[in-house]
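Note to self: keep these together.
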Amino acid sequence: MKFSAKSKPVDPGFQLAPMVDVMFILLAFFVSSQIFARWEKEIDIQLPTAVASENPRRLPGEIIINISKSGSMIINEKELGESDLAALLDRIVDIFPGQPVLIRADQRTAYQHVISVLDLCRQADIWNISFATSSE
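Structure:
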C-alpha cells in the first residue's frame, strides 16, 4: 500500500485580506498615538525655564490648563472664564477624584492669574497639581 500523495501543494499567491488587516491596525495605532502624544503646543505660550526641568510622563486623563500672558485660561483649545473653569473642575472631580492637573503658564503671565487658577483647583478639591517648565 502506498499512502503518499503525488500532488504538490498549491501556492496561494498574495493574500490581500491579512495585508489589509495589518494596515488597518497600523493606521489605528498611529492615529491613537498621535492623539495621546499631543502636548497642546499649538498654543503660543513660552514656558519659564528651570535647570532641573524634565519631561515627566503624562498621566492618564491629565487636565492641562494653559494660562496666556494676558491671563486667559485655555483648556482643549477653548478659552474659559473663572466661573466656567470652576464648574468644569467641579464636574471633573465629581467623576474622577484625584484628577491630575498640569498648569502651563506663560513666563510673562502675572502671578495673580496663576494664583487664581490654583485657588479654583483648591476650591474644587484638586490636590494633584504640577507646573510645566522648559529646560534652559
